[in-house]
């Protein structure tokens, strides 16, 4: 069955019944006999879909777990209240005091803060490596246990050669954890490229309507069992209402991403032709770092890209004058969003990009002509 069809049918209950699985809110699951309780408890130790206790998720969450695991090509998936929580929970499963962690230098700033703050305080040493490295020998230590990657890079969108990198890591027994929020289980599948865990902030495209906070971590092989133990022990779960909303959002994931991609490309082309713009950063543009690798390994792009303006451009005034691009920290919903950024602060690798005011844009589902006309009015008003 093709992936587009699966999206429509994930979690479908038996007929006659509703098109979507119902929201099951529960903590205690009651049994008539001790034997039934003990049998259920034994089954849940090997089957995450068994309804046993609210902390293990109800049937609503179980349907979402199975859906994301299938989309990612993983053996299991576990849910968290946010994307950062999913990454933190995953890292806690694979590194501990005395271990060494390698992280790509273009990682999401919240991940860097987690690594430099919480992990270091807990005795984990951390080093960062360039996004285009596939041989990590210069940073490898005897205590190295895991590698964190994010492709394309956060806010600058460099595409990593994950097959090349994971070929190197597998030979050394290292666990590779990928932040796959950009690909959101549809455009990109790190587990198929050699990674062991794929983490997604479902707050973005999985939910798709800017009203859900959730995270997911899909895993394969030995990593799935290790992650499962950590999740069960620490009590990570997702509320049934959020699970329902995310599962409902999945139904249109492919269609929304197609429109986001179309709008983002059109806007990127418009910006590239402007004299006020020094560079457009988009993984689908042939000139962008790693574009050939992204074209080889991914199945398209989403609505995100960044723009570097010429020095002196009044970015704040430009954004304040826009009517259709609201200012917001998140993305992945139906709406267009803009955010001034400074992604190179804290990075250890030298930047290859021009210097100037920078903004990350998310192209929403509005008509592209309206978005471009809005941007043109904003620039014209600055000139006036």
Number of strands: 12
Low-pLDDT runs of 5+ residues are none
H/E topology pattern: HHHEHEHEEHEEEHHHEHEHEEEH
Q: What is the CATH domain class of the largest domain?
A: Alpha Beta
Helical content, roughly?
25-40%
Strand residue percentage: 15-25%
Mean pLDDT: 96
Please give the alpha-carbon distance between the first and last residues: 56 Å
Main beta sheet strand tally, sense and closure: 7 strands, mixed
Strand order of the largest sheet: 1-7-6-5-4-2-3
Indicate the radius of gyration in whole angstroms. Answer: 22 Å
Counting structural domains, the number is: 2
**What is the CATH topology assignment of the largest domain?**
Aspartate Aminotransferase, domain 2
CATH superfamily of the largest domain: Type I PLP-dependent aspartate aminotransferase-like (Major domain)
Number of helices: 12
Q: Note the overall shape.
A: globular
CATH architecture title of the largest domain: 3-Layer(aba) Sandwich
Structural class: alpha/beta
């Amino acid at each position: 069955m093709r992936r587009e069809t699966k999206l429509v049918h994930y979690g479908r209950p038996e007929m006659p019944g509703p098109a979507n699985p119902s929201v099951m809110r529960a903590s205690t699951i009651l049994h008539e006999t001790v034997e039934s309780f003990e049998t259920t408890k034994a089954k849940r130790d090997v089957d995450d879909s068994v309804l046993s206790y609210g902390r293990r998720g109800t049937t609503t969450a179980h349907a979402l777990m199975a859906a994301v695991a299938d989309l990612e090509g993983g053996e299991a998936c576990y849910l968290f209240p946010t994307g950062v929580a999913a990454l933190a929970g995953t890292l806690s499963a694979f590194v501990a005091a005395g271990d060494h962690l390698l992280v790509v230098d273009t990682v999401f700033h919240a991940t860097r803060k987690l690594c430099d703050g919480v992990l270091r305080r807990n005795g984990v040493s951390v080093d960062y490596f360039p996004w285009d490295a596939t041989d990590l020998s210069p940073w490898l230590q005897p205590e190295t246990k895991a590698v964190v990657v994010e492709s394309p890079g956060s806010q600058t969108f460099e595409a990593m050669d994950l097959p090349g990198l994971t070929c190197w890591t597998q030979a050394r027994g290292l666990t590779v954890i990928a932040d796959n929020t950009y690909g959101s289980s549809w455009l990109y599948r790190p587990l198929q490229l050699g990674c062991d865990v794929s983490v997604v902030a479902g707050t973005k495209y999985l939910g798709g309507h800017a009203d859900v906070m959730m995270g997911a971590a899909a895993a394969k092989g030995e990593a799935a069992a290790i992650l499962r133990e950590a999740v069960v022990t620490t009590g990570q779960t997702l509320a049934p209402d959020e699970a329902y909303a995310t599962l409902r959002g999945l139904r249109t994931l492919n269609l929304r991403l197609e429109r986001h991609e179309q709008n983002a490309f059109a806007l990127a082309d418009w910006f590239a032709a402007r004299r006020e713009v020094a560079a457009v950063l988009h993984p689908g543009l042939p000139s962008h770092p790693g574009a050939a690798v992204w074209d080889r390994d991914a199945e398209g792009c989403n609505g995100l890209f960044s723009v570097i303006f010429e020095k002196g451009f009044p970015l704040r005034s430009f954004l304040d004058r826009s009517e259709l691009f609201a200012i917001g920290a998140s993305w992945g919903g139906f709406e267009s969003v803009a955010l001034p950024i400074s992604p190179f602060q804290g990075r250890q690798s030298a930047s290859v990009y021009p210097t100037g005011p920078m903004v990350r844009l998310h192209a929403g589902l509005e008509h592209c002509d309206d978005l471009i006309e809005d941007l043109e009015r904003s620039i014209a008003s600055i000139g006036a």
